[in-house]
Amino acid sequence: MATCGGSPSEPDDLSPVVQSISPNFGPIAGGSEITVHGVHFTAATTLTIGGQAATDVAVPSADVIIAKVPAAGGAGPADVVVTSEAGSGTLTGGFNYLSPPDNVPPTIMAIVIQGGRPNEPPDFADLNETVSISAQVSDPETASDQLEYQWTALVGTIVGEGQTVSWHAPDASETPLPVAIELRVIERYGQDGIFQHEATAARTLSLHDSVREVGNMARRFLDEFSQPQTNKDWRDIMMDFDLAGGTCAEPGAIAEERLQVTAHYTNFVMHNYDIGPATASVNFGSHCAVRNRPGDACVGVPVYWDSTDTRTGKRAQTNGVDRLSAAYSEMASRWWLCSSDLVESKGSLGHSIYAR
Asked: For position 228, what pLDDT does the model report?
């Protein structure tokens, strides 16, 4: 076709032209993201690498394609082909598939969780407490500080990054509550770190509201002890004591308390009683003031008893503060009561059971 007074003309060639690809290498497993640069890319464009269709193809502009590389059967160069309705363009050997080099995955040998209070047990935290968490990791090819550490916890907040972080407990929660601290360690290796190994592990800490927990146990024991019933078993009354042994530093105190409980139901009839609010303190590996009882926690509970000694028929009232000690069991992840002593008594003390 000729124009008036001119020379013949041909329509412009709108076939895609592939100019470059970045990055131009990746693992034979595929999945890496690439950006293809060129001209005449359209929304109808398809992309293949080594004859296999790329995935997640997006064409944000006429000169850019973003996609993920398909898997290959082996290592080596592969042609990059862009096709549209107007034709196709090829960058011969534009992408190089690489096989992963020999590499040993990292090993998470241990996760250590430790609070900062003196004698605080490991894997323990109270509400609103911050504890330190560190990982012991081994890798023969990559230094531990060059690995990537991803910490997660469904409860509380991870603070920091790297091999050692902190975990801050929530201000409020139902307790005791097991909280899994999970770690994912990533080792990137090979050219530009295109290959990676992963290792995962988890460790569970026990979250507590220790003051509330030991206070509730103390009040529950005193309430069970005080109720005017004579058909209870002493084990039910002392359900929160470490009857199996192994936790309390003074096991003889538990045997002593059993005798007191048994004597109470044998020799006394309770008419009225009142159990006040508990006041507790936590100081791991310490002693409580009354009788220098060893304990991780100390509790004081005001009590009032109005009862009759069946041996003498004498009725008497007792006001005082019951002092209890408690210990934390790492094995059971719980608190146990260890001893109970009534002190600061006022009123007519007719019962030795109370003034112990």
From this structure: 80
CA distance 189 to 4: 66
Distance of CA 292 to the CA centre of its chain: 36
Query: In the prediction, which pLDDT does 345 show?
Result: 64
Among 179, 333, 341, which residue's Cα sits nearest to residue 247?
333
Ranges under pLDDT 70 in the chain:
1-12, 229-230, 344-356
Which position has the token pair 């469904």?
154
**Residue 3 included in any domain:** no
Paired residues of 306 in beta bridges: 272, 317
The pLDDT of residue 232: 78
Q: Given this model, what pLDDT does residue 1 score? A: 41
Among the listed residues 248, 250, 341, 254, the one whose alpha carbon sits nearest the alpha carbon of residue 291: 341
DSSP letters, 190-225, are SGGG-EEEEEEEEEEEEEE-HHHHHHHHHHHHHHHH
Q: Is residue 291 part of a domain?
A: yes
217 and 337 within one domain = yes
Distance, CA of 297 to CA of 294 (rounded, Å): 9
Task: Give the C-alpha separation, 95 to 289, whole Å.
Answer: 76
- In the chain, the number of structural domains is 3
Determine the pLDDT at residue 35.
Answer: 98
Alpha-carbon distance of 304 to 274, in angstroms, equals 5
Whole-number Å distance between alpha carbons of 161 and 147: 11
Residue 72: how many CB atoms within 10 A of its CB?
21
Residue 90 domain boundaries: 17-98
Q: Is 26 helix (H, G, I), strand (E, B) or coil?
A: strand
CATH number of the structural domain spanning residue 136? 2.60.40.1080
CATH number reported for the structural domain that contains residue 220 in this entry: 3.10.450.50
Q: What is the pLDDT of residue 356?
A: 39
Q: Residue 330: what pLDDT?
A: 97
The whole-number pLDDT of residue 346 equals 62
